[in-house]
Amino acid sequence: MEEIERDVMEFDVLIVGGGPSGLSAAIRLMQLANENEQEITVCLVEKGSEIGAHILSGAILEPTALNELIPDWQEKGAPLNTPVSSEEIMFLSETGSLKTPNAFLPPAMHNEGNYIISLGNFCRWLGEQAEELGVDVYPGFTAANVLYNEDGSVKGVQTGDMGVQRDGTHGPQFEPGMELHAKQTFFAEGCRGHLGKELKERFNLEADSQTQTYGIGIKELWEVKPENHQPGLVVHTAGWPLSTDTYGGSFLYHLEDNQVAVGFVVGLDYKNPYLSPFEEFQRYKTHPKIRDTFEGARRISYGARALNEGGIQCLPKLTFPGGVMVGCEAGTLNMPKIKGTHTAMKSGMLAAEAAFEAIQSNFDVVELVEYTNRFHHSWVRTELDAARNVRPSFKWGLWLGTLYTGIDQILFRGKAPWTLKHAHADHETLLTKDQATKIDYPKPDGVLTFDKLSSVFLSSTNHEEDQPIHLTLKDDSVPVAINLAKYDGPEARFCPAGVYEYVADENKKDGSQRLQINAQNCVHCKTCDIKDPTQNINWVTPQGGDGPNYPNM
């Protein structure tokens, strides 16, 4: 193969990912440099077309880390416009509901002093703060490959080539990616980062941790009638439409401007291969306590993203020669709080402080072990430690898990002298099709409930169609021979974007099917990479700037 000549750029610190952790790390590095009158070079690359384009979360922001990072955020115009005014937690049956008295809620589930936000808009604002401080921010550039030094340490990343055709040849618009080298590379790709997967395996970072477990979060943004809008209202539910042995729940957040964010999370350790998280979400909106909010409303955006649920016992080793993991790349989400932005930001800040300390000593330290030390002496560690037993308790089902959570969080205050273990990796939990019960989902009405394709349209997702498919299969025979034969093709249901579809195999006359991958629909949620029972699907980055373009999500 012809050797490609690539431009090389050198930096002190390279950050992969423009989410809360990566941007907070970049800002903290430049703050320290300015305070110490020291020049450093910091580069941040983001695969989305702009900062915030691929960011999706509920989201309620606890401003703890923001207060530390940018104390004058209000004067600087941070988009925190809707303080939480009231909150409800309900358990749903098919037609009824039971509200939990706020006095019985664990402390972690209270939201006084927090804000309902668009995390995408918040990241756009953080990006502006980073650029003003002198960070080189490059949206539309994927980190396609990790680069290594001869001694095995991380050297940096290679950005993705542009203009590569479906067959792998260089098209007329071909532009080679660059090599970005740094003394330290921060990996902040978010949940299930594709480079993070490689690093965990190469450096055996999960040797002393439990297997990470995940959920899929699906979200819509609606513009509702003024009489149905209550700015600052937060509603969470558990129960219907999910069975009691399936972990999950919903959120309903009333933002400013008559907008309501509604979403549904399903733990990816679910068992029934016929379950569709997307269809469960659509069913949820039809509940009598929920549907009235959307009477006469207009749906304006849609998206989906996987999230880490495992807790601190699933965190990998955070450092390795030449780099670190921060935020959801590592898995810092606090599941009982249903929040991960503040912890992700703080992890990036801690890594930045350790890196700047190394810069001042001329980077004699190859591995930033001081970051790990700072992390384990921070409020993030304390908070995650207190939360560690909540998610794994739901392996006993909704009611026992809820009961245990009350005991753990209210009676023990998260300080129980034991740590529960997760039962399985998410891809190991599916029943075979002959063990499972099919689920009959109602057809969408196009008013309150919708199909996947019309939903993906609202995500503004776009991929150049002639590029190589970024949803790669390790073995092309596995989908039909195992996934379809044994589990009735669950990828067609667990994907929230209609990427995977079993269709008639036109090359065979016996009625056989084949797996069709509609990669142009992909919203980069990573569910397939996590839940595929054979772990045959490997998500790799597409061309830079491709994917969803979330507005106000």
Describe this structure in words.
By secondary structure, the chain is an alpha+beta fold. Among the domains are: 8-72 and 120-209 and 316-387, FAD/NAD(P)-binding domain, CATH 3.50.50.60; 390-420, no CATH class; 450-539, Alpha-Beta Plaits. The chain is 25% helix and 23% strand. The strands form six sheets. Strands 1, 2, 8, 9, 10, 13, 19 and 20 form an eight-stranded mixed sheet that branches. Strands 6-5-15-16-17-14-18 form a seven-stranded mixed sheet. Strand 9 (143-148) and strand 10 (154-159) form a beta hairpin. Helix 1 (20-35) packs parallel to helix 3 (119-133) and helix 7 crosses helix 8 (369-376).
Helices and strands in order, then pairings?
Elements: E1 8-16, H1 20-35, E2 42-46, E3 60-61, H2 64-69, E4 82-83, E5 86-92, E6 97-99, E7 115-116, H3 119-133, E8 136-139, E9 143-148, E10 154-159, E11 162-164, E12 170-175, E13 179-187, H4 194-202, E14 214-223, E15 233-239, E16 248-254, E17 259-267, H5 277-284, H6 288-291, E18 298-308, E19 319-320, E20 323-325, H7 341-360, H8 369-376, H9 379-387, H10 390-393, H11 398-411, H12 452-458, E21 471-473, H13 478-487, H14 491-494, E22 500-504, E23 513-517, H15 527-531, E24 537-539
Parallel strand pairs: 1-2, 1-13, 2-8, 5-15, 13-20
Antiparallel strand pairs: 3-7, 4-7, 5-6, 9-10, 10-13, 11-12, 14-17, 14-18, 15-16, 16-17, 19-20, 21-24, 22-23
